[in-house]
Amino acid sequence: MADVIIDESSFVRSAGRQLLVYGIVTVLGFALLMWLLDALASLVGSSSETTGAVDAATGTITLYLDEEPPQLDSTLATDQVSGRIIGHVMEGLLRKDELGNIVGGVAESWTIDADKAVFNLRAAARWSDGKPVTAHDFIFAWQRTLDPATASEYAFILYYIKNAEAINRGEMPPTALGVSAPDERTLVVELERPVLFFDKLVSFPTYYPVREDFFKATNGRYGADADTLLYNGPFVISSWVHGASLRMDRNESYWRRDEIRLNTINWAYITSDANAQLNFFKDGKVAYAGMAPESLSVALENRWHLRQFQDGGVFFIEFNHRPNRLTRNLHLRRALLLVNNSSELVNKVTKLPGYLPTNSLFPAFLDGLHDKFRREHPAKDVPIDVDQARRELELARKELGLEKWPPLSLLTGDNPIANLQSEYYQSVFKDKLGLDVRIDRQIFKQRLQKMTSGDFDMVMAGWGPDYEDLLTFGDFFASWNLNNRGRYDNPEYDALVRKAQASLDQAERVELFARMQDIIVDDAVILPNYEKGASFVTDPRLKGLVRRVVGADPDYTYAWIEESAQ
């Protein structure tokens, strides 16, 4: 429907009906003509009504979600799907505008220095029930996140606040957190150490507020359904049918509600089926569709305007380093690394525009000192060497005391791209090394659960940036980071992360990250796969869609409908 040809063919069909009518007039007379015109009006009306993707009259766009959001409690959420939804219905102290600049959110003004940040909250910031958003709502959310009983995997991102890490380790009570509220509209944050990017951090969902009285009234079900969430962002969830659909309506209590131009975002479908997603777009049922490899030919045939975006995410096979797993063995991991061919994976298997082969944990968009980090510090190259890989595998077998290799499990998602990639690696490891790999396909929520519990030897994983700094990737494999699902633990690596956290000297920090990059290769911590690109199409009437490297993506909070767009 994004192609003008569709409009032209609609015109031809209408014209054909008119010619048919004119031909019949001379035979059947005026009365019958009037009856036929009424019928024709009905037919033409049905063909010109909104297709469902975009409805300018009601200010509604219809979309699909790839997966059911596993977790809409901002203190617990870790995945991109949940983050996308939360980013539309919640707001932190600061936010990003349509150009990616940090601007005021709940806070109308703020100051940040070496040891303290002060945020002045705007009087107009309200919850969806009309009550004001207060400094206490942030304090409650942050204390809850850090409480060990909460088991938040993102607690580490709050460690820049005084006493946060000690609280999360159970060494201090949550009330010892270095935050205070002199009054309802003033939030004072004591910093554990100077940090160059604290303004970027507070726009991240883990820093969002939660109102204590509402949270307690949900009796442990906060964020589980539409009516167990309280909203302070541009939209509210008006309906959530689990596994089927999710609908948002504009939040009339939001402080900048008059700037929100959409009335409704209707995620009417939840499916990871690429064919279904494509057909929804072809049939005019959704205003956006991502492109799978098999979709590209359809897009070209229909002359859709294909758009691309580099989303900043890095994807890799993560090993399980726990003591009870065979993949704890360095020689086994090196053997697998020596047969890893990310170029082949991207160019011959995945075959999607925008995907880039990589040999690093750090994506190409991140800045170094004077240039991009990866140009200043290229990752060590590991040439494919099957003979050396087999020698490493034999060393591993002897060290592990095995007569023969048992099957290894590869945990992966259950979608077309994941299926292609996991079957490719299954074949590579069998053909090159004689290893049997059992693919463990799981739907999104179950895959996350198995990753968290460590129920895998290898997992096809990825990481997107939480803020624009090398540390957002560098601290991923710190031993205290619960997103480090394989539990890689290296004191030298941890020490480098600590130094990078504390340093205000960017030259020093860049050198520290370069050393981290070397360790990840030397220890074969992961098998790097690719940097992810997005190829997508949109309904031409949908304007103002924002794609983000950091934050809710895609972001529809600045979008609007232009009814006459071609």
Q: How would you portray this structure in words?
A:
The protein is of the alpha+beta class. It has three domains: 4-49; 65-269 and 539-561, Alpha-Beta Complex (Dipeptide-binding Protein, domain 1), CATH 3.90.76.10; 310-533, Dipeptide-binding Protein, domain 3 (Roll). The protein has helices spanning 4-28, 30-48, 80-89, 135-146, 164-168, 198-201, 212-217, 274-282, 296-301, 330-337, 342-350, 373-376, 386-400, 416-433, 444-453, 471-474, 491-502, 506-522; strands at 54-55, 60-65, 94-96, 102-104, 107-112, 116-121, 179-183, 186-190, 235-241, 245-250, 264-270, 288-290, 307-319, 356-357, 408-413, 437-442, 458-463, 526-538, 542-543, 560-561. The longest helix has 25 residues, at 4-28.
Main sheet, how many strands, which sense, barrel? 7 strands, mixed
In the CATH hierarchy, the third-tier topology of the largest domain is known as Dipeptide-binding Protein, domain 1
Count of domains = 3
Bin the helical content.
25-40%
Strand fraction band?
15-25%
Give the N-terminus to C-terminus distance in angstroms. 10 Å
Rg value: 27 Å
Mean pLDDT over the full residue set: 89
**How many runs of DSSP E, i.e. beta strands?**
20
Name given to the CATH architecture of the largest domain: Alpha-Beta Complex
> What structural category characterises the helix and strand content?
alpha+beta
Give the overall shape.
globular
CATH homologous superfamily title of the largest domain: Dipeptide-binding Protein, Domain 1
Give the oligomeric state. single chain
- What is the count of DSSP helices, taking H or I runs of 4+ residues? 18
Low-confidence stretches: 1-50
CATH top level label of the largest domain: Alpha Beta
